[in-house]
Each structure stands twice: as C-alpha cells, then as structure tokens.
Automatic annotation (TrEMBL):
Catalyzes the isomerization between 2-isopropylmalate and 3-isopropylmalate, via the formation of 2-isopropylmaleate. Residues 1-123 form the Aconitase A/isopropylmalate dehydratase small subunit swivel domain. InterPro entries: 3-IsopropMal_deHydase_ssu (IPR004431), Aconitase/3IPM_dehydase_swvl (IPR015928), AconitaseA/IPMdHydase_ssu_swvl (IPR000573), IPMI_Swivel (IPR033940), LeuD (IPR050075). Pathway: Amino-acid biosynthesis; L-leucine biosynthesis; L-leucine from 3-methyl-2-oxobutanoate: step 2/4. HAMAP family: LeuD_type1. This is 3-isopropylmalate dehydratase small subunit. Pfam families: Aconitase_C. PANTHER family: 3-ISOPROPYLMALATE DEHYDRATASE SMALL SUBUNIT, 3-ISOPROPYLMALATE DEHYDRATASE SMALL SUBUNIT 2-RELATED-RELATED. Belongs to the LeuD family. LeuD type 1 subfamily. Heterodimer of LeuC and LeuD. The keyword Amino-acid biosynthesis applies. GO terms for molecular function: 3-isopropylmalate dehydratase activity. Keywords: Amino-acid biosynthesis, Branched-chain amino acid biosynthesis, Leucine biosynthesis, Lyase.
Length: 203
C-alpha cells in the first residue's frame, strides 16, 4: 500500500449526500477480485449515458476534474453495501482522499485499509471547499496528514482529527498484511520454538 503523507491536488466537488457504494461502483462490475481496472467504472451510472457515452454534466467528465485526487462530498458517504470494490474504484481512478462530514463505518474502515484518507469536516467547511474546488486547476487543495490539516487555496489551514493508529499506518503505507510482516521476527521465533517443542507436527 502506498504511503499517504501530504497530497496537493485537484479536488472534485460532489454535492451529494448518502452516496452509497452502488453509486460508487455498481454491482455489475463486482465480478472481479482485482484491485485494478475499476477506475473506468467509478460512478458509472452517473458518468455514462445508457448508450455508453460520457455524461458531460458529471464532474469527473469535466476538466480539470478528470485528474482529481481529492473528492469532496456531503453526509453519509459510502453507505449501503460493504463492498471493498468502492475504495478500489476510487483509488484506481486516482482519488487518494475523500472529504465529507461523515462516512459509513465499513467504507470508512475499508478506505484506510486501501490507502485512501477519509477526512471528516463539518458540512459548512465542506461547502467552502467545494466552492474552492469549483475554481478548477487554479485552486488546488493540500491535505497534510503529518500535520493533520487541510489547506485551502487561500492558505487557510483547517485541522482534522484522525485515529493515531490509522494515521501511523497510512503514513507508513501499512495495510493488514504490512502490519503482520512487521512482526516477522517474532513470528519466526515463535515458529522455531514450536518446532523444537513439537517436532512431530512439522515432520
């Protein structure tokens, strides 16, 4: 998992509440267990018309938001089913941070496990950031995980809270497997003791 320390990028405004995981990645795209290739299907029902052509009114089909790395939304982002494909699709598109007043719990947890930083900020602050984002490529937003601040284009710093363990894991690019591998020496030592004590189990 790629570490997340400090990100400065284009933010896409998505002024919608209750964006569920089926909106993020519709069920028809869940046949794969690969984490790559889902970006093209992110928000498919909103991005594409029935004939498969792009909907020019949807924000991610507009410049400069095709290159967005931050997504700003309203309440209860990621509600609905527990599909991990939702953060996979966001990440494959290029989104590394989602800012919203709050998130559905399972989506919130899955985001951290896949290298996406979900930032909770009050609704009025999210609305301010959306206005900033509407300025396009000239209004890049910085998300600094080390300092735990979001920096607006005008230089204003907005602090956010995050669980210390999750912050540590993101800063160091550690998913569940990475955490386990950090204990490799202890695991090897335990296995060696087990082999010595019960060699017949390892024959």
């Amino acid at each position: 998992m790629d570490a997340f320390t400090k990100l400065t990028g284009i933010a896409a405004p998505l002024p919608m509440a209750n964006v569920d995981t089926d909106k993020i990645i519709p069920a028809r795209f869940l046949k794969t267990i690969a984490r790559t290739g889902l970006g093209k299907s992110l928000f498919a029902n909103l991005r594409y018309r029935e004939d498969g052509t792009e909907n020019p009114d949807f924000v991610l089909n507009q410049e400069p938001y095709r290159s967005a790395e931050v997504l700003i939304a309203h309440e209860n982002f990621g509600c609905g089913s527990s599909r991990e494909h939702a953060p996979w699709a966001l990440l494959d598109f290029g989104i590394r941070c989602v800012i919203a007043p709050d998130f559905a719990d399972i989506f919130h947890n899955n985001s951290f496990k896949n290298g996406i930083l979900p930032v909770r900020l009050p609704r009025e602050v999210c609305d301010q950031l959306m206005e900033d984002a509407k300025l396009g490529a000239n209004a890049r937003i910085t998300v600094d995980l080390e300092r735990q601040v979001v920096v607006r284009p005008n230089g204003e710093e907005i602090p956010f809270e995050i669980d210390p363990l999750r912050r540590h894991l993101l800063l160091n690019g550690l998913d569940d497997i990475g955490q386990t591998m950090q204990k490799g020496a202890s695991i090897d030592g335990f296995e060696a003791k087990q082999r010595a004590a019960q060699p017949w189990l390892y024959a």
